[in-house]
Protein backbone atom coordinates (compact mmCIF):
# COMPACT_ATOMS: atom_id res chain seq x y z
CA UNK A 1 0.00 0.00 0.00
CA UNK A 2 1.30 3.49 -0.71
CA UNK A 3 2.48 5.45 2.19
CA UNK A 4 0.30 8.26 3.36
CA UNK A 5 2.32 11.46 3.22
CA UNK A 6 2.86 13.26 6.43
CA UNK A 7 1.09 16.53 7.01
CA UNK A 8 3.71 19.24 7.22
CA UNK A 9 3.75 21.24 10.37
CA UNK A 10 4.41 24.92 10.46
CA UNK A 11 3.10 28.23 11.56
CA UNK A 12 -0.34 29.08 10.36
CA UNK A 13 -1.45 32.46 9.42
CA UNK A 14 -4.56 33.64 11.18
CA UNK A 15 -7.64 32.68 9.26
CA UNK A 16 -5.67 30.35 6.88
CA UNK A 17 -6.30 26.62 6.66
CA UNK A 18 -3.49 24.22 7.39
CA UNK A 19 -1.45 23.04 4.42
CA UNK A 20 -2.96 20.08 2.67
CA UNK A 21 -6.49 20.74 3.89
CA UNK A 22 -9.30 22.91 2.66
CA UNK A 23 -11.99 23.96 5.06
CA UNK A 24 -15.42 23.26 3.66
CA UNK A 25 -18.17 23.76 6.12
CA UNK A 26 -17.27 21.91 9.29
CA UNK A 27 -15.20 19.22 7.52
CA UNK A 28 -11.53 19.17 6.39
CA UNK A 29 -10.65 17.50 3.08
CA UNK A 30 -7.10 16.27 2.29
CA UNK A 31 -5.39 17.52 -0.84
CA UNK A 32 -2.05 16.32 -2.26
CA UNK A 33 1.09 18.27 -1.29
CA UNK A 34 1.88 21.21 -3.51
CA UNK A 35 -1.73 21.58 -4.60
CA UNK A 36 -3.54 24.73 -3.52
CA UNK A 37 -6.43 24.08 -1.20
CA UNK A 38 -9.83 24.12 -2.75
CA UNK A 39 -11.78 27.27 -2.26
CA UNK A 40 -14.97 26.69 -0.42
CA UNK A 41 -18.05 26.87 -2.51
CA UNK A 42 -20.71 29.55 -2.02
CA UNK A 43 -22.77 29.25 1.12
CA UNK A 44 -26.40 28.29 0.67
CA UNK A 45 -28.75 31.29 0.88
CA UNK A 46 -30.25 31.98 4.26
CA UNK A 47 -33.98 31.32 4.48
CA UNK A 48 -36.01 34.50 4.22
CA UNK A 49 -37.98 35.25 7.38
CA UNK A 50 -41.72 34.87 7.16
CA UNK A 51 -43.50 38.23 7.05
CA UNK A 52 -45.13 39.17 10.34
CA UNK A 53 -48.92 39.36 10.15
CA UNK A 54 -50.33 42.84 10.36
CA UNK A 55 -51.81 43.57 13.76
CA UNK A 56 -54.30 46.23 14.63
CA UNK A 57 -53.15 48.78 17.19
CA UNK A 58 -54.15 48.06 20.75
CA UNK A 59 -56.37 51.11 20.84
CA UNK A 60 -58.48 50.17 17.81
CA UNK A 61 -62.20 49.57 18.37
CA UNK A 62 -63.94 46.85 16.42
CA UNK A 63 -67.40 48.07 15.45
CA UNK A 64 -70.02 45.37 15.32
CA UNK A 65 -73.55 45.73 14.07
CA UNK A 66 -76.37 45.00 16.51
CA UNK A 67 -79.30 43.75 14.42
CA UNK A 68 -81.73 44.12 17.35
CA UNK A 69 -80.77 47.75 17.97
CA UNK A 70 -80.98 48.48 14.25
CA UNK A 71 -84.44 46.93 14.06
CA UNK A 72 -85.63 48.96 17.06
CA UNK A 73 -84.21 52.11 15.50
CA UNK A 74 -86.10 51.41 12.28
CA UNK A 75 -89.29 51.08 14.34
CA UNK A 76 -88.47 54.43 16.07
CA UNK A 77 -88.20 52.79 19.49
CA UNK A 78 -85.88 53.95 22.27
CA UNK A 79 -85.32 51.60 25.22
CA UNK A 80 -84.55 53.49 28.43
CA UNK A 81 -83.88 50.61 30.80
CA UNK A 82 -81.76 50.85 33.94
CA UNK A 83 -80.71 53.57 36.32
CA UNK A 84 -80.93 57.06 34.84
CA UNK A 85 -77.31 58.12 35.34
CA UNK A 86 -75.04 60.62 33.61
CA UNK A 87 -73.54 57.69 31.69
CA UNK A 88 -76.85 56.23 30.47
CA UNK A 89 -78.56 59.51 29.66
CA UNK A 90 -76.17 60.30 26.79
CA UNK A 91 -77.08 57.40 24.44
CA UNK A 92 -80.78 57.69 25.31
CA UNK A 93 -80.84 61.40 24.49
CA UNK A 94 -78.78 60.77 21.35
CA UNK A 95 -81.33 58.22 20.15
CA UNK A 96 -84.24 60.60 20.82
CA UNK A 97 -82.57 63.52 19.05
CA UNK A 98 -81.58 61.39 16.04
CA UNK A 99 -85.07 59.97 15.57
CA UNK A 100 -86.56 63.43 16.00
CA UNK A 101 -84.33 64.76 13.25
CA UNK A 102 -84.83 62.06 10.61
CA UNK A 103 -88.61 61.65 10.69
CA UNK A 104 -91.93 63.08 11.78
CA UNK A 105 -93.55 59.90 13.03
CA UNK A 106 -94.00 59.49 16.80
CA UNK A 107 -91.11 58.09 18.86
CA UNK A 108 -91.91 55.15 21.13
CA UNK A 109 -90.08 55.53 24.46
CA UNK A 110 -90.05 52.41 26.65
CA UNK A 111 -89.31 53.30 30.27
CA UNK A 112 -88.03 50.92 32.92
CA UNK A 113 -86.08 53.18 35.28
CA UNK A 114 -86.22 52.23 38.99
CA UNK A 115 -84.36 55.41 40.03
CA UNK A 116 -82.39 58.28 38.61
CA UNK A 117 -79.86 60.97 39.35
CA UNK A 118 -81.31 64.44 39.59
CA UNK A 119 -79.01 66.04 37.00
CA UNK A 120 -79.51 63.19 34.50
CA UNK A 121 -83.30 63.43 34.86
CA UNK A 122 -83.24 67.15 34.08
CA UNK A 123 -80.99 66.50 31.06
CA UNK A 124 -83.47 64.02 29.63
CA UNK A 125 -86.38 66.33 30.45
CA UNK A 126 -84.73 69.14 28.47
CA UNK A 127 -84.11 66.76 25.56
CA UNK A 128 -87.74 65.64 25.48
CA UNK A 129 -88.92 69.25 25.66
CA UNK A 130 -86.74 70.15 22.65
CA UNK A 131 -88.29 67.55 20.34
CA UNK A 132 -90.82 68.69 17.76
CA UNK A 133 -92.32 65.22 17.23
CA UNK A 134 -94.67 63.27 19.45
CA UNK A 135 -93.23 60.89 22.03
CA UNK A 136 -95.37 57.99 23.24
CA UNK A 137 -94.10 56.59 26.56
CA UNK A 138 -94.76 53.04 27.72
CA UNK A 139 -93.77 52.06 31.26
CA UNK A 140 -92.73 48.42 30.98
CA UNK A 141 -91.31 47.77 34.44
CA UNK A 142 -90.56 50.02 37.38
CA UNK A 143 -90.47 53.78 37.21
CA UNK A 144 -89.35 55.50 40.38
CA UNK A 145 -87.72 58.47 42.03
CA UNK A 146 -87.31 61.71 40.08
CA UNK A 147 -87.52 59.71 36.81
CA UNK A 148 -91.33 59.76 37.15
CA UNK A 149 -91.14 63.40 35.99
CA UNK A 150 -90.21 62.15 32.50
CA UNK A 151 -93.89 61.39 32.00
CA UNK A 152 -94.57 65.13 32.11
CA UNK A 153 -92.54 65.72 28.92
CA UNK A 154 -94.18 63.16 26.59
CA UNK A 155 -97.31 63.25 24.45
CA UNK A 156 -98.92 59.99 25.54
CA UNK A 157 -98.36 57.94 28.69
CA UNK A 158 -99.29 54.32 29.24
CA UNK A 159 -98.36 51.61 31.70
CA UNK A 160 -98.10 47.86 31.36
CA UNK A 161 -100.36 45.62 33.48
CA UNK A 162 -97.48 44.76 35.84
CA UNK A 163 -95.74 48.13 35.90
CA UNK A 164 -94.97 49.74 39.26
CA UNK A 165 -94.43 53.38 40.18
CA UNK A 166 -92.60 54.86 43.15
CA UNK A 167 -92.66 58.47 44.18
CA UNK A 168 -89.32 59.29 45.75
CA UNK A 169 -86.55 61.79 46.27
CA UNK A 170 -83.04 61.30 44.88
CA UNK A 171 -80.07 60.39 47.03
CA UNK A 172 -77.94 63.52 47.20
CA UNK A 173 -74.39 64.00 48.45
CA UNK A 174 -72.32 67.15 48.83
CA UNK A 175 -68.58 67.64 49.23
CA UNK A 176 -66.34 70.61 49.87
CA UNK A 177 -66.22 73.52 52.24
CA UNK A 178 -69.24 74.69 54.22
CA UNK A 179 -69.98 77.38 51.67
CA UNK A 180 -69.67 74.93 48.77
CA UNK A 181 -71.95 72.41 50.47
CA UNK A 182 -74.58 75.12 51.07
CA UNK A 183 -74.40 76.16 47.43
CA UNK A 184 -74.83 72.57 46.27
CA UNK A 185 -77.80 72.06 48.57
CA UNK A 186 -79.46 75.20 47.23
CA UNK A 187 -78.88 74.07 43.64
CA UNK A 188 -80.29 70.60 44.40
CA UNK A 189 -83.35 72.18 46.06
CA UNK A 190 -84.07 74.25 42.94
CA UNK A 191 -83.69 71.21 40.66
CA UNK A 192 -85.93 69.14 42.90
CA UNK A 193 -88.57 71.88 42.89
CA UNK A 194 -88.50 71.69 39.09
CA UNK A 195 -89.32 67.98 39.33
CA UNK A 196 -92.22 68.64 41.73
CA UNK A 197 -93.66 71.42 39.56
CA UNK A 198 -93.57 69.19 36.47
CA UNK A 199 -95.37 66.41 38.32
CA UNK A 200 -97.88 68.89 39.70
CA UNK A 201 -98.68 70.16 36.19
CA UNK A 202 -99.00 66.58 34.97
CA UNK A 203 -101.27 65.23 37.72
CA UNK A 204 -103.13 68.37 38.76
CA UNK A 205 -102.10 67.86 42.39
CA UNK A 206 -100.58 70.46 44.67
CA UNK A 207 -96.81 70.70 44.86
CA UNK A 208 -96.90 70.08 48.61
CA UNK A 209 -98.81 66.82 48.08
CA UNK A 210 -96.29 65.69 45.45
CA UNK A 211 -93.44 66.56 47.82
CA UNK A 212 -95.11 64.71 50.72
CA UNK A 213 -95.67 61.56 48.65
CA UNK A 214 -92.08 61.69 47.41
CA UNK A 215 -90.61 62.10 50.90
CA UNK A 216 -92.46 59.07 52.22
CA UNK A 217 -91.76 57.03 49.06
CA UNK A 218 -95.31 56.20 48.00
CA UNK A 219 -95.73 53.13 45.77
CA UNK A 220 -98.49 52.75 43.16
CA UNK A 221 -99.57 49.96 40.85
CA UNK A 222 -100.76 50.77 37.35
CA UNK A 223 -104.41 51.31 38.37
CA UNK A 224 -103.33 53.66 41.18
CA UNK A 225 -100.98 55.45 38.83
CA UNK A 226 -103.86 56.06 36.41
CA UNK A 227 -105.97 57.48 39.24
CA UNK A 228 -103.02 59.61 40.40
CA UNK A 229 -102.61 61.03 36.89
CA UNK A 230 -99.18 59.66 36.06
CA UNK A 231 -100.37 57.58 33.11
CA UNK A 232 -103.50 57.63 30.95
CA UNK A 233 -104.18 53.91 30.71
CA UNK A 234 -102.85 50.45 30.01
What does this entry look like structurally?
With 234 residues, this protein is an alpha/beta fold. Helix content is 35%, strand content 17%. The strands form two sheets. Strands 3, 4, 5, 6, 7 and 8 form a six-stranded mixed beta sheet that branches. A two-stranded antiparallel sheet has the order 1-2. β1 and β2 form a beta hairpin. α2 runs parallel beside α3 (118-130) and α4 (178-203) packs across α5. The protein is elongated.
How would you briefly describe this protein structure?
The chain is an alpha/beta fold and 234 residues long. It contains 6 helices and 8 strands, in the order ββαβαβαβββααβα.
Number of helices: 6
> How many strands appear in the DSSP assignment?
8
Structural class: alpha/beta
What sequence of helices (H) and strands (E) makes up the elements? Answer: EEHEHEHEEEHHEH
Low-pLDDT runs of 5+ residues are 10-28, 56-63
Largest sheet: 6 strands, mixed
Distance between the termini: 118 Å
Give the rounded overall mean pLDDT: 82
Q: How much beta, percentage-wise? A: 15-25%
Q: What Rg do the Cα atoms give?
A: 41 Å
Shape: elongated
Helix content range: 25-40%
Which terms summarize this structure?
single chain; 234 residues; alpha/beta; 6 helices; 8 strands; elongated
Amino acid sequence: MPEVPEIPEGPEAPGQARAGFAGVGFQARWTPPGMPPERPGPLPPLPRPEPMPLRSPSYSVHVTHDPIAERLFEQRIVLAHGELTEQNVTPWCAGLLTLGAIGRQPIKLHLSIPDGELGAVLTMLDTLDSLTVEVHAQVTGRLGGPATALLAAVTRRRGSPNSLFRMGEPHLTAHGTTEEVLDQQEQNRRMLDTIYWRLSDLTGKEVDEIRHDSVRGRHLNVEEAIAYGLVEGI
